[in-house]
Design a protein that fits this description.
The chain has helices spanning 17-27, 77-86, and strands at residues 9-12, 31-32, 42-45, 52-55, 70-73, 90-99, 102-110, 116-120. It is α/β, with parallel strands linked by helices.
Length: 131
């Protein structure tokens, strides 16, 4: 019988792994994992029992590589966006979509290397980000 899989790490291949690991560590209240000097990737342990983040400089296979995209949920989207901007992120746009009685608002942002991610205030089964 096949064993179910689980998500272990979210791997990001930035130009500057140190800078991006620092950004995401602060943005998600993560903690840098101590690693032996000979181990290349930088690991950031994230709170909770979900996946952690791994940062390693890797060559892109093509110029059309799709960058990683992360969706974040915050109690207060506007405060979270402000904090992320202070850490070096930038805002692309804020979007709003009405679906029956629900209004979804999310902010599309870029981390310090231009990788897109979104911040919303409620968890949603549907990913509404467009980056």
């Amino acid at each position: 019988m096949l064993r179910m899989m689980r998500l272990e790490n979210i791997t990001v291949a930035p130009e500057n792994p140190e800078r991006l690991a620092e950004f995401w560590s602060k943005a998600l209240d993560g903690e840098r994992r101590e690693r032996p000097e000979f181990v290349d990737p930088i690991m950031v342990d994230l709170p909770g029992s979900g996946a952690d983040m791994l940062f390693k400089e890797l060559p892109k296979s093509t110029e059309q590589d799709i960058p990683i995209h992360i969706d974040l949920v915050a109690d207060d989207r506007e405060k979270a966006v402000e904090r992320l901007c202070e850490l070096g992120a930038s805002v692309r746009e804020t979007n709003k979509e009405e679906m029956g009685p629900i209004t979804e608002v999310w902010t599309v942002m870029e981390d310090p290397e231009g990788n897109g991610f979104c911040v919303t205030e409620r968890e949603s089964v549907w990913v509404l980000c467009s980056s």
